[in-house]
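Input record (one chain):
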Amino acid sequence: MKKINVVTLGCSKNTVDSEHLMARLAAAGYEVLWDSDRTDAKTVVINTCGFIGDAKQESIDMILRAAEAKKAGRIERLFVIGCLSERYADELRAEIPEADDYFGARDWDGIVRALGAAENPELATSRHLTTPGHYAYLKISEGCNWKCGYCAIPLIRGPHVSVPMEVLEEEARKLAEQGVRELIVIAQDTTYYGVDLYGKRMLAELLRRLCRIGGIEWVRLHYAYPTGFPDDVIETMAAEPKICKYLDIPFQHIADNQLSAMLRRHTKAEAMELIGRLRRAIPDLALRTTLLVGYPGESEADFAELEAFVREVRFERLGVFAYSEEEGTHSALHLRDDVPEEVKQNRVERIMALQRDISLENNRRRVGRTERVMVDSRQGDHYVGRTQYDSPEVDQEILIPAAGRRLLRGRFYDVKITAAADYHLYGEPAVK
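The corresponding structure, as predicted from the sequence alone:
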């Protein structure tokens, strides 16, 4: 059987794309491997990221390593797909001609044909999972219409295109039949789902339908754009027991002049009002946000306002990034990258130091509680699990001693929280 190695870089949306591709490759008779450096596969496909500088460099480095392997005869065919080749295919062909071909993020049929895989419509909702078998990402739309000042995604992925609801239901049912218990709903903007297909936002209805699928026990919502946040999504999250009391909602900043410069289309007052609505409706909600510091024109006063926002809201989960200029974006074309790199990094560190203290305080309040935990893995002397308040790979974990009781991956257990650190918790299986 012919072997193929699919290497996926970048975000969880890329993961879903690769899993769809691998299902079609497996149907075509390939033995599919992924992200492996220890394989004798003669064909390699690299799914690249082209979002920010560090991610682009990682993708380029991976292509170069594969090109060297091809020159040395260790592999025979090399194909590159995804966001980097969507933006820079011509440049890549000139600089790294060893690749057999380059395909963009929107040209999946091209790579399928190049590899001689089936174009069977019945495979459209099939996935070859690369996540642990008990959770999977469900990508509900492609692209984005917002065109925030710093973001290249609309240039790469195009405008917002929703996946029809019945297609998503079929895909989710197939995942449940494979043993998936947690669906992590993702898109560039999940709350915009349905506008292009149904003339209105339909995320709440989609969530309700996903909750009715047998075998699915957790439904988790990521990447919810704050502008025009649908009230019915809040109501559905509060009412549906399967929906995790967790929401990833990237605010990016809070100073009005920065929000305006970023083309974020909401104000500080609107952001605070939304946070208030969410926490009143769902008192135990874990809010995750992403912040961007060092955007052109960010003053010390703007940054001080951002710090005060973090102190006031006390997000349960938070990530922060330094601004990186991306060619073709509004900020690259119209604004000057005028915040020094050392200032950007200092601001990142200040926000993360503040968040570390907030996270530790939040975690200490959970000591003594008994919480429902999904076990993800065993690492050394501990099982590693998560509550509904934590998404895999990005959030904190609960460490449970492995000595004594045997716990199974993908199963739920009642765990008593015994101790807290800044970004993880310790617990023991509750005695019944």
